[in-house]
Every structure is written in C-alpha cells, then in structure tokens.
Design brief:
Radius of gyration of chain B: 21 Å
Pfam families (chain B): HypD
Largest interface: A-B, 30 and 47 residues
CATH architecture of the largest domain in chain A: Alpha-Beta Complex
Shape of chain B: globular
Distance between the termini of chain B: 35 Å
CATH architecture of one domain in chain B: 3-Layer(aba) Sandwich
Radius of gyration of chain A: 21 Å
Protein name (chain B): Hydrogenase formation protein HypD
Strand content of chain A: 15-25%
CATH topology of the largest domain in chain A: Phosphoribosyl-aminoimidazole Synthetase, Chain A, domain 2
CATH superfamily of one domain in chain B: HypD, alpha/beta domain 2
Structural class of chain B: alpha/beta
Number of helices of chain B: 16
Structural class of chain A: alpha+beta
Oligomer: heterodimer
Helix content of chain B: 40-55%
CATH superfamily of the largest domain in chain A: PurM-like C-terminal domain
Family (chain B): Belongs to the HypD family.
Keywords (chain B): Iron, Metal-binding
GO molecular function (chain B): 4 iron, 4 sulfur cluster binding; carbon monoxide binding; iron ion binding
Chain lengths: ~325, ~375
Amino acid sequence: MVEKISLAHGDGGELAHQLIQNVFITTFGHHDQAKLDAAILHIPQEKLTISTDSFVIKPTFFRGGNIGKLAICGTVNDLAVSGATPLYITVAFIIEEGFSIPQLQKIVSSMAEEAKKANVRIVSGDTKVVERGSVDGIFINTTGIGVINTEEMLPKTIDKQDVIIISGTIGDHGISILSARGELGLVTELNSDCASLNDLTSEVLNVSSRVKMMRDPTRGGVATTLVEICEDFNVTIEINEDALPVKEEVEGACDILGFDPLYLANEGKLLLIVAKEDEEKVLAVLKKFDIGREATTIGRVSEVETNGRLFLKMLLGSRRRLNRLAGMQLPRIC
Amino acid sequence: MIETLKQFSSSTISQALLKQIEQKAGEYKEKFGREPALMEVCGSHTMAVAKTGVKKLLAGKVKLISGPGCPVCVTDQKSIDAMIQLAESDERIICTFGDMVRVPGTNRALIDAKTDGRDVRVVYSPCDAVEIAKENPDKQVVFLGIGFETTIPVLAVALKKADDERVTNFSMWVTTKLVEPILRKLLNEGDVQVDGLLLPGHVSIVLGKYHYQYLVDEYRVPGVICGFEPAELLSGIYKSIELLLNENPEIINSHQHVVRDEGNRQAQLMIDQYFQVCDEAWRGIGVIENSGLDIRDQFIHLNAKSRFDIKAGEPKPTRCRCGEIIRGLIPPEECNLFAKACTPVNPIGPCMVSSEGSCAASYQYLREE
C-alpha cells in the first residue's frame, strides 16, 4: 500500500509534523533552521536580485526531470540570466489529497540534488494540502535570491551587429512534455533539457564583459523571447533559419503536429546577445559545458531603431517577420 | 524518412528551381499575356507556401490562389453552432481536433463552453475519444468528426473500434467534406481564373492519382500532386507551368515517395464500409449536393445526429468573408475585418483560427513588414 498524502498532512498536527521532519527537513538538510519561522540570510553585496515562479507542469514526472527539478532550475535560471549568483531559495508546496508520498519524496530529493548542483540553499518552505480535485497532484512555488557580483549590470546597451547565441538545441522541453502527456500518440526518446544554467552564465561573464543580455527562453520559446527583446530594447534582430539547432526528433514531431520549434518551451537553454568581437570567446566557453556543447550563433542585431522587429531569414532567401504566437499552439488535424 | 524530406528542404535545389520557375513563368506570360494562376487546393499547402516564403518570392510571377482545402474553414457556421450546442450539457464529454475549439460560433466558441466548466477535450486521434468513452461509462462521449478524405478513414477506424468493442456511450457528429465536388463547383462556376491545380499531398495518399483524371478529361485542367517541403512545392509549381505551356493537361504524381497512383485501397474500403454520401453545407457557399459523407444507416447507433436532439437556428450573418476567401475569389487582405477586428487572438471566422486557414497564413507569414 503506497502511503498517500491526506488532508491531515496539511493541518499542522502530528502527521504534518512527521511529513515535514521525514520528507522535507531530512532531504533538504535543514535542522536547526527549521525551528524558526523565517530564515536569516547572510548577504555580503548590496545588489540583490529576487525572482519567483510557480510550477504546475503536467505530467509531474517526465523524461529528464520532474516538477521538483524544474522548480529549482527555473528559479535558478531566472536569477542567473540576470547576471546574478543564486544563493537562496524558498519552496512552497500545494499538494492534492491522495498524492503518493514516495512520489513526493522523489520530487523533494531531486530538488535537493539540483539545489546542491546549482550551489543554492533551500532556506524556507511551506506545505499546504487541499482536497482531492482542488489541484492537479502537486504545484510548487519557488522564490530565489541572488547577488549581483559584477560591477556592470545587465542588460547593457545593445548595438548593431551584436550576435545572438543559443546554448543548444531548441524545443526539446516542449516536445518531450507533449509526448509525456501521452495525448498525441507521439512516442519519443527525447529528454527535457531541464537544467540549471548558473555555471554557464557565471563562466561567460567571467570571460566576457561584452555580454549585453542573457535570457532563458522558456514558455513561448526563442521567438517570443526575442520579440520581447526587440520591442523592449528597440532593436531589430534577424535570425537565420538554417542556423537554428533543432534535434531531428523535435523537427519530426513539429512537422507532424504543426508546431514551430521557435515557439516551443526550453528549460535549460541560454540565449545571449554578445558583441561581435567576443562571439568566439563566448561560444568557446559555452562549448566547454556538456549542456552548451551545441552552442551556436543564430542571428544578429541588424538595426537599432524604435519599433524593433524580429525577422527570420529563410532558406530560400526571403525573410518574414516573427510575431508573438496568437492563441495556443494546437495540433492540426491533417 | 526525415532524411528523404531533408533533401527537399535543401536550399541549393530550391534556389535552382526558383530560377527555372521564373524563366518558365516569363515564357507563359509572353505566350498568354498574363501570369499563370495556380490554386493550392490543400490548407497545408497554403500554410507551406506562406511559411517558406515561396508565395512572396513568386509574387508578380506566378499567382498562387488559396483553395477550399482547410477542413475547419469550410465547416458551415450552422454546424459549428450545433457542435457548441452539443457541448452545453453536463452529461456529455465533447472530443475534438485542436483547431475546432477556438472557431467562433454565432455566440461563442467551444473553448468558452470549456471555460464555463463543460467537458471539452482536444484529442489527436478519434480513437482516443473511444477510450475516453470506455473510461467514463456514465457520460455520453461525442467526437466531432470533421475533415476531408485524409481524415475520414481515421474516423472510420474509431467507428469500427466503438462498434467492435460495443462502446455504447460513444457517438460521432460528422460533417466531413469531399474534394471532388468542391473542385467541380469552382471549375464549373469559373468565377476565379484557375489554370492549374496543386493537388493535396495528404488527401492524395488516400485517393491516389487516377482519381483526378476528371480534371483533365472534363475540364482540361492539369494537376500536380506535391509534398510540402520547399523543393517539393517548387517542383510542383514548375511542373504545373510546364504542363500549361505545353497545353497538354495531365495529372502528375510528384509525391511518389508517399502517394501511390491507385491511392490507399484499404483506407478507401474503410470509408465505404462506414460512410455514405450526403449533401453538405459549406461555409459561405451553401449546400452542395453529394459533397460530404455521413455515417451509414447500418451504424446509425453511432451517429450523434440521431442520438441527440440538437437544432441550431439560422446563424447571424457577419461581415466575415471566409466564404469568398475559401473559393479563392479574394485574398484575405481584401476582407475589411482582416488584421483589424479579426486576428488570431480574436478570430471572427474559422480561416483565422485554423492552422491551415488562409487568413491565419496571411496574418502570420505574409503581412507587410
């Protein structure tokens, strides 16, 4: 009989105490700290960054990760791409009555493992249990705090001819999740790219002072992220269709389902805007990492102008404008 | 397979083909005094010529007209209203292909019914809907079966599954369309100048090449069956113009790695076994005799139209010009609503919703920079 979460695990009584002791405190390695209502943080720098994100992914477990790993990577990455060193994370769980405790343990363990890898400490947490049907299994919120340790803050002024670099293949997470949902009759061996990027970002910032901006292109994919940059920073960007790194499985699935990899979510990819002179240097650093092995330049800033736009230069030579995706990317029917 | 397709997306081959098309199109213009007009029958072709840039690159040289081949777009407003009405019951689970959920009916779309708590689910295969019916024996599960000959065999497979496994709470609401009657109507009416047809890659897998011989025998219009990669599209266009120049119409199967000349016999048999010809209403066009398929009388127990008492009223007319767009009479940009009142976020007509709709293709890929 698998142990399951009951409403009593969230009522502050004995069962709640046991859950917190056995699952959270043990796995996250908190002991004395858990006796306090709030964590005390020691932060040397003056410039702090803070970011929060909620994770509701379906399915909870997928190839290459689970909701717990994603909840750590997601927040670590939001801090990392702003040029910060992530230090602390808080986690809050909302769990559906009936959720399997061994599965919860797995989720919590991968959070602890990923936090260790990313060198962040989980310093505060909360658990709520709600009636069956009120949430879909488990939802997690994480909030992260980091410090900015470069004198020069990101983003910096973007110039004409700056290059756009991506740290690897695009759309892996999107297709992997679609296939894990099992609703599309699509079977792939594809892993989600879910990974923490803070090692990459700190190494890149160490070698180059000409990194203008970093982003992690999650929901909405590379295209949506770049459209936002074009609009917010008044630049026009042109990316090349033949330069886009896309795994064969992703390309095949997109063909069948009518998706565009440029709009599919990534959870472990770094998108950078870098001055042309540092392009090779940055690429070389990215390629030293396993998750940056396929780093490549995908385009450039073609103009600095108000009403910036994003263009795709296509294989046949013409170019078309890329906009935000309207509505959901839904499977087509024939 | 992907390797095979990759060679068709190669830009060197495509660049060479583009040059040759320009040359042939020039010869055509010299001979006939205008540019050749080709209709891409299939919605996926409409999307592909827009997305790959082929349409833009050939502008002013070859006129590419979007045809009636997007199954969502040709679905009559009244049918859409009926489907939405079908969803307005707590006793039912409505399963549908993705594009349908956002198509606006007279008052609202399926997605609005879903937001209000109705059980509307997007499935990729109609057989998934049969499985959902098995998992929910206390609910009526209805699959909304729309599509052309590509999709109809898949609908038949789901009907077979439900019938074989005696899934009594499953039924299908069918409004399918056939390619031949609408092509005949367009060619008979002659409102739009069509010199040649780019024939659908997917539908032809089922129908084969021989099926289209009537185009040549009765209308003297050539057709080329082609795929969706840039080089496949371009070679289809090239061959079409060549046929026009030679004034020797024929049907060419330029998609031979997928389409057999005789089609897919097994799929055709499945269609025959479960479906019978019926009159169908086409959006903006009206009822065309024998232009669709409905479930055969012997499987009437699987037909949602006889199981449920759904009567949609006459839809309110809108200023949406999807009907003319489907027939190739006007390009999307000529509709006053296009990209103003009607956008993919707030669509007025189905052509702006469907991933194969010509309005969606124009909005996404062909608008002014």
